[in-house]
Amino acid sequence: MRHAKELGILREHLAKHGLKVTKQREVILDAFLRNEHITAEQLYRMLGRHKPHIGLATIYRTLNLLCESGIAQERHFGSQTHYDNVVHKRHHDHMICTHCGAIIEFENCDIEHLQEEVARRHGFTITTHKLELYGLCSKCKN
Amino acid sequence: MRHAKELGILREHLAKHGLKVTKQREVILDAFLRNEHITAEQLYRMLGRHKPHIGLATIYRTLNLLCESGIAQERHFGSQTHYDNVVHKRHHDHMICTHCGAIIEFENCDIEHLQEEVARRHGFTITTHKLELYGLCSKCKN
DNA sequence: TACGGTAATAATAATCGTTCTCAATTAGCC
DNA sequence: GGCTAATTGAGAACGATTATTATTACCGTA
What we know:
The structure is a homodimer.
Chain A (H helix, E strand, L loop, with lengths): L3 H13 L6 H11 L3 E3 H7 L9 H13 L3 E6 L2 E6 L7 E5 L5 E4 L2 H13 L3 E12 L6
Parallel strand pairs in A: 4-6
Antiparallel strand pairs in A: 1-3, 2-3, 4-5
Helix pairs in contact in A: 2-4, 3-4
Chain A binds a DNA duplex through helix 2 and helix 4.
């Protein structure tokens, strides 16, 4: 079975809240984990011809469960909500080209350390963060 | 006249794009600048009993103009879009308590320098950025 | 000051992403 | 296997934002 680790995390989260493990939830988890980040709509189309048809509402419900259990993280970008895979992949931030829409990922430990420092100074405990740089990518500078 | 500087910026932006200066735009700009950050809905209620009634659509249109001209910056938070005043106030980022919803502002030059460095490494030119730290504020740690 | 072209407005309808409702189905414990 | 509560899919509903449209306001020019 693929994604055994994440399936375990999800099962545990469901058990802890008296919820049930269903075929749909397993299918959605599996499809979700094949991508870095994805929207509900994309998942819906991706699972379009799956044997038991999966409704859009179920996908939204399940993505929310994945967020609660720490497998996914939601990010508001444009009009849609994107869901990031945060288990296998290290945390990363984004540079977004305001001209062509390109998204460049990066990670920087120094920045994260400074964030921790700022938070400590305010008695704040960080659980997660979001950093987005907007501007022009190398191709669009002309 | 209050907010003469920002009015000048807006007028210039409008002129450059063949758009017109209207009473509504001046009123909305003025009301917008009285706050650190605000939503379209809040502005709408705030201007509810203004002499020429101002429609919600006009507020959205004008806020978009303010963003284009660099006077405002939009931020997606929860389901609504918040608009930040960025002319008088220095750029600042936010710590958001996921328990009580408190928003703590901060600014940190070192982080911004590191952002520039990362961007340079990717041939990216930053025009603006957004940094949000999520977690628990000092009051909610219990 | 009046004119004329064009943009802006208010009201409303429409759109889009997301959530809710509800009857039918299914998981998980006895 | 059967009970009970959770889950599902379909479509309606929702809320924030944008488009439409007839009317009004701006502003350069005469």
